[in-house]
Design goal:
437 residues, alpha/beta, 7-stranded mixed β-sheet, 4-stranded mixed β-sheet, 15 strands, 16% strand, binds pyridoxal-5'-phosphate
Length: 437
């Protein structure tokens, strides 16, 4: 095990560095649903890493695939050359995506998938002689990664405020969260489909012919687990289609079983024009993201005629051999071995279990969809996030790792969990919340 000199050199992302470095939380190894800490404790992972190790940690098939690939081909250029695994993985991903979303552009992260999707949308409209379509519409509370396009369409103030002016010509759909009317709803709230109609108002205000794309997470993850009202996603699809606006589903969290199917699009029975995936794509094992692209969009770029490079965009590590090998093995586990299908039987148990936390101290809302849930605490007087963080530390001491953002616990148990693991998560979380004043 490497022994860091101290914890000073590494500037940690999205972390309270000073707090962490005073009491570091270090994982030395992991297997299945457990981490082992550097001091030998077993910690149950209620967050699937960071919404990514859906098939559990160090899945033997994925580990083996990476080991083999590492000795075979370390790297191949992704521009004007390739390697078979990237093409094979693209086929597998295309087969998994709904309908005619059958082309795949590889990236190295979810953030890059979002940037790539936004660029594809803008360039597509130009190729259709609709260069006036430059506006991008996101949504309040949306999280689309941390690059400039993503934070511009994103709707989380802390991720935006230090980096203004961001991209021009961006607007945001209103917040879907309505605790006063929908608190403790199981699954999708009945109220609120009209929030999607605000897109019609934006079309009226800006002119539909100026809007390139609407980008949303079908079910909001990092922004606090916010579940779309019944009919909401469907309405967005209708309005975008009516006005020639591309609909981008950011499924970086939602795909690979999190919402109860291979994609949320499939669960909602919808086909977006572009779909962003990452995280579960390699089960978190090697960084990789991708954009799934509708056939007619791809064919506006790649027409069959040799015009040279059709899309001036890409990354040194697009479709990297190790990531592609990990991705193929993950697809085996999720699809061929049936993990996504099997995990559906856990959803109703998880729903009942998480709603069992109603009545714990300061819990003001519980929201759930598939195998994701948000448990929201009222902020304490010392400021937003203090109460949540204190409860997170208590739960960690008691052997369960949760993801908390602000005062919202964001649960995303591994798909391989059994009921006993779910019970342990709820017991430890309930105790931690009740012990936090
Ligand atoms: C919906 C969504 N989009 C994009 C991203 C960014 O992904 P990455 O951190 O891999 O850049 C995330 C990360 O959590 C996400 O949840």
């Amino acid at each position: 095990m490497p022994d860091p000199r101290d914890f000073n050199a590494y500037w940690m992302p999205f972390t309270a560095n000073a707090q962490f470095k005073s009491v570091p939380r270090l994982f030395a190894s992991a297997a299945g649903v457990y981490y082992t800490t550097d001091d030998g404790r077993q910690v149950l992972d209620a967050a699937s890493g960071l919404w990514c190790t859906n098939a559990g940690h160090c899945h033997p098939k994925i580990v083996e695939a990476i080991r083999t690939a590492a000795g075979e081909l370390d790297y191949a250029p992704s521009f004007q050359a390739g390697h078979p695994r990237a093409f094979a993985l693209a086929d597998r991903v295309a087969d998994m995506l709904p309908g005619t979303l059958d082309h795949v552009f590889f990236t190295n992260s979810g953030s890059e998938a979002v940037e790539s999707a936004l660029k594809i949308a803008l360039a597509y409209h130009r190729r259709n002689d609709e260069a006036s379509r430059t506006r991008l519409i996101g949504r309040v509370r949306g999280y689309h990664g941390t690059n400039f396009g993503g934070i511009s369409v994103g709707g989380l103030v802390n991720n935006r405020k230090d980096y203004t002016p961001l991209l021009p010509g961006v607007d945001h759909l209103p917040d879907m969260l309505n605790i006063s009317e929908n608190a403790f709803t199981k699954g999708q709230p009945e109220q609120g489909v009209d929030l999607a109609d605000v897109l019609e108002e934006m079309v009226a205000l800006h002119g539909g012919e100026t809007i390139a794309a609407v980008v949303v997470e079908p079910v909001i993850g990092s922004g606090g687990v916010v579940i779309p009202p019944l009919g909401y996603n469907e309405r967005l699809r209708e309005i975008t289609r009516e006005h020639g606006i591309l609909l981008i589903f950011d499924e970086v969290i939602n795909a690979f079983g999190r919402c109860g199917g291979p994609t949320a699009a499939e669960v909602f029975n919808l086909e977006p024009d572009l779909i962003c995936i990452a995280k579960g794509l390699t089960n978190g094992s090697v960084p990789m993201g991708a954009v799934g692209v509708q056939r007619d969009i791809y064919e506006r770029f790649v027409t069959g005629e040799d015009i040279g490079i059709e899309f001036f965009h890409g990354y040194t590590y697009s479709g990297h051999p190790l990531a592609a090998a990990a991705g193929e093995a993950a697809m085996d586990v999720f699809m061929e071995d049936g993990l996504i299908a099997e995990s559906q039987s856990l959803i109703s148990y998880f729903e009942e279990a998480v709603h069992g936390l109603k009545g714990c101290a300061n819990v003001i809302d519980i929201r759930n969809f598939g195998l994701m849930a948000g448990v929201e605490l009222a902020p304490c007087e010392d400021g937003v996030g203090k109460r949540g963080f204190e409860a997170f530390l208590k739960a960690y001491e008691n052997g369960v790792f949760f993801r908390v953002s602000g005062d919202v616990f964001q649960l995303s148990p591994p798909l391989i969990c059994d009921r006993h693991h779910i019970d342990t998560m709820m017991e430890v979380l309930g105790e931690a919340i009740n012990a936090t004043v």
